[in-house]
Amino acid sequence: MQDERVSIEHEADIVTARQKARELAAASGLSRTEQTLIATAISEVARNIVSYARRGEVVLALLEDHGRHGVLVVATDEGPGIADPELALKDGYSTSSSMGMGLPGARRLMDEFELETAVGKGTKITMRKWSR
Amino acid sequence: MAQPRQDPRFQHRMEIDDEELNKRKAFLEFSDEDAQVLRNLGEMARTYADPVIEDFYRHILSFEETRAFFRDPKLLERVKRLQKEYFLRLTDGEYGKEYVADRLRIGRAHERVNLAPKWYLGMYAFYLRAVANRFLGAFDKEPDKALFAFLSLMKLVFLDIGLAMETYIQEREATMRRQQEAIRELSTPVLQIRERLLLIPIIGVIDTHRARLITDGLLNSIRANRARVVVMDVTGVATIDTRVANHLIQTVTAAGLMGASVIVTGLSSDVAQALVGLGIDLSKLNTACDLQGGIEEAERFLGYRVVRSAEVAGVRPA
Amino acid sequence: MPVPILKQGDVLIAFIQAALTDKDLVRFRDELGEAVGRWRSRAVVIDVTALDVIDSFATRTVRGIAHTARLRGARTLVVGIQPDVAFAMVQLGLTLEGVTTALDLEDGLALLEEGGQRGSSDAR
After folding, report:
1. For the domain that residue A49 is a member of, what is the CATH number?
2. Domain span at residue B291?
3. Which of A123, B318, C87, C120 is most enclosed, with most CB atoms within 10 A?
4. Residue B106 and residue B164: Cα distance in Å, rounded?
5. Is residue C124 part of a domain?
6. Do A105 and C93 touch (CB under 8 A)?
7. What value of ipTM does the predicted structure carry?
8. Is the minimum CB–CB distance between B282 and chain C shorter than 8 Å?
9. Which of residues 198-217 of B touch A (CB under 8 A)?
10. How far is A15 from chain B (nearest CA, A)?
11. Are B261 and B301 in contact (CB under 8 A)?
12. Is the pTM of this model over 0.90?
């Protein structure tokens, strides 16, 4: 399957990534609600890239597993990395306050969520959503 | 809901890439030599294709269960043509990704018309026997050549059977999933009982997936019916634990974002107390003692006033 | 791209057409604040029917707008949140405190006519 790569540098790129993800999810047979969940999760994660890392990339791909279809999202950046990933992932680490990075929220929206990060080494977030 | 995919990326839902195909051929010990043997039989195959097909369909039409699939004469003609193409492809010499895609399509077609494995396995058996006889005739003086040719063909046919059967199973599972989905949707009806007032009676077990379906259905109904109030009755919900309670609260919050108020009925005070004790904040939930109370409250909220008509004043109340 | 702000009596109505940039939103908030002051509006209605995603950033922005409006004596309504968007917002844990919500513009304006108190954030 072909990957879709979206470079994330400006705010407008967040919208591009969201749109492409929506199209991909639709092609995969995911419902409108599932499409919106993915687009919203990408919005959160891509905005982090713009806010904290200045530049990064979102890669989208279709998934298939024994009849189930899904979407893979990998967001990477070479920003400062997250000093305390456990804290960043803690539920209750508010998405509505301006301090939050929206990671617990994004994780709730998706079916699978992995965070790889280290100070000075950037961040990589891998997320998957499957059709039902 | 999900549509059948026209997207070329989904030509075959099964993942049969080159690596997988080679694995299968290796397991069947189907080599390039076999491919060559079959290619050499191409011309012979073209001469006996028609009579074999005729025999084949005579056989199929002589059995009631399989005759049923071919009542339409136009369909029968079309299928005969496709069958001949299939037959000739066996001695094509090309057995790569395109060949595989073709076979997978056949498997899907069988599932769609509900042609059970016992019938199409029987059909494959018929082929092999018919062809074996032809080979014996053609390699009259060299029976071992006939045998080797037959063995090559047999390997290929088993490759085909594997592909067709797996696709059939996969399509079956997809059909079952769709049916399960339909049942789930039916099991939580959204009822409009007055203008701008919806009733959702929830019955049974609520897992995360069902909760999402219910919320999804509710929110879409709010938009479709322009509902301002929803009465959500949970009397029939088997167990209301913290997870279910959180689902309820989320549903109520989401409905609120669309301007609709939700009245939850059927939540006994025992259950409510237990939930509060477990740390669930129920203050955001509007509850009513029972369904009737909930509906009456909803109607009042919407400005309805239900008045018993004077004519039945003489009738004893229920 | 500036967000068009319409005046209907003492209510201001704004339609958000697409995802706005930081700059657009700041501009919108400022223009709205200014308009509320100038027209002594009692309410601001923000129609988000066209938004296919409302994330934490958009939510913070709307709350900021509501705050600005409140400082100038106007309440804020958000109308037109789509079902799938409402679902995602709730999954994300986003709330629109300080903002009243209604199904669409028609309902929002009717609510203002009634002087009603309904909405996600208003207590019952």
Report:
1. 3.30.565.10
2. 191-305
3. C87
4. 7
5. no
6. yes
7. 0.91
8. no
9. 209, 212, 216
10. 23
11. yes
12. no
